[in-house]
Write a structure and sequence with these properties.
Distance between the termini: 116 Å
Structural class: alpha+beta
Largest sheet: 8 strands, antiparallel
Shape: elongated
Number of strands: 17
Length: about 350
Amino acid sequence: MEKMCSLALILLSLSGAYSDSHSLRYYSIGVSAPGSGLPEFSIVGYVDDQQIELYSGDIGRSVPVAPWMSRNVGLEHWERRTRISKEYEALFKHEVKAAVKRFNHTGGFHFVQVMHNCEMRDDGSTIGHQEYRYDGEEYMYLDIKTALFNPTMAEAQIITQRWNSPDIRKGEREKNFLESKCIERLKKYLEFGREDLERRVQPGVKVQGQESIKVTKLHCHVYGFHPRAVDVKWMKNEVDDIPSYETTHVLPNPDGTYQIRVSVEVIPKEGESYSCYVDHSSLKEPLLVKWEPKQNIFRTIVICAVISAVIIVVIVITGFFIYKNRNNYRAASTSDTYADTSKKVAEKS
């Protein structure tokens, strides 16, 4: 379980953005140091946001993950996928060693990721993408139009020149796979899992703020949505994006839905408002949930407390004067009675 959690975090670094199209993605991951908590080599397949298969060097075979893949794909398919994965594993281990040498590293933990992705859009058009990463940073990618590999780091210049050479033309083979076999496979898988893949569950949204003297930290928790792709951000005055914010990964819930939290630090000023923007394929229109500062509530409480205190003080002072005047009245009455009594006694004498 610990290995799979680590593997999931690496895969999330390659996750796609919000989209309403369908895609088939394969992530191949190789590590330079066995015993690091990850399999030395693994392949993970996804249709949209759902994992459909897994090959791991630890178990030595490809296995279905999504229940609808288990129901619709027979043993022969998984035996074929296992043979292909084993062949790719041998090549990939060589690529990991070459990449470590290419980046002039002599030891430590390093990993290479390759993503194959074919996408079928709503208008029927298709697109393919392939990229290579070293320790999470892209170092080369396939230009699907030219069928050539382009380096994004100096360390990848030699290998891209070799793969693009007329006697190898690796890019042409990869382009052919992404535009034909990958799309065919995607269409077949979509039929198998259509009911689950096209399920739409609207998100719930909760906003809150942690206020302090200097800044206010706003949190937007979006939860219970399906599918996984979602766009969440904070906006000021319902128009301007707030560019700097913190976000968690989109995390799965036990019921098959997802959740995410996006936070931002702001200094609220008079006349400004802050809202959480949420866009998801289950919504007809994006949601804009406004944050109501607690400061207004505190101000109301303070005002009420001051008014209550003033009333209490007035009541106390009024009571004091009434009590004092009543005592003076009683003293005066007692004195008058004593004088009258003395006068009557003198007259009788």
